[in-house]
Amino acid sequence: MAEYKCGLCGREFRKEEALTACVSCPFHKGCKLIKCPNCGYEFPREPGWLKKLLGRGEKNAKRKS
Ligand SMILES: [Zn+2]
């Protein structure tokens, strides 16, 4: 189940994947950014608009786990 969606390439991924991608973060482990494992795009964790977008998408797709 994808928790995040990359705003650049549209790739959906889980928090674990984002954290794994961030181990090479130049600052320190566990920074506040989510990093797309596909294209490397970094963005803030759970922005409001993204949450809304994902919520709406799940409703439309009727995808329930
Ligand atoms: Zn991406």
Keywords:
two-stranded antiparallel sheet, 65 residues, 4 strands, elongated, alpha+beta, binds zinc ion, 32% helix
Describe it for me?
This protein has 65 residues and is of the alpha+beta class. The protein has one domain. The protein is built from 2 helices and 4 strands; from the N terminus they run E-E-H-E-E-H. A two-stranded antiparallel sheet has the order 1-2. The protein has a two-stranded antiparallel sheet with strand order 3-4. A hairpin with a 6-residue loop joins strand 1 (4-5) and strand 2 (12-13). The longest helix has 14 residues, at 48-61. The radius of gyration is 12 Å and the shape is elongated. The mean pLDDT is 72. It binds zinc ion (ZN). Residues 6, 8-9, 11, 36, 38-39, 41 line the site of zinc ion.
